[in-house]
Task: inverse folding
């Protein structure tokens, strides 16, 4: 996965991420959700190929979600 985050409310957060991607015309190529054991869930996903500016806008929107924390810096 090229995008790795963690969250506390996985159903709500995954729904928001997917809806944001859909509204922007982006598709996910892969997605995973795993419990981390500390009340948080690891959310990983990969976007289908997209224009760099569109991808950057998507990442900026995800950064506004309170429950979503980025786990590592990716390209």
Result:
């Amino acid at each position: 996965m090229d995008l790795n985050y963690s969250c506390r409310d996985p159903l709500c957060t995954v729904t928001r991420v997917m809806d944001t991607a859909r509204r922007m015309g982006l598709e996910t190529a892969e997605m995973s959700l795993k419990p981390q054991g500390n009340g948080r869930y690891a959310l990983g996903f990969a976007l289908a190929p997209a224009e760099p500016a569109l991808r950057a806008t998507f990442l900026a929107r995800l950064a506004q979600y309170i429950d979503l924390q980025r786990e590592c810096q990716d390209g």
User: Anything to note?
Assistant: The chain is about 35% helix and 30% strand.
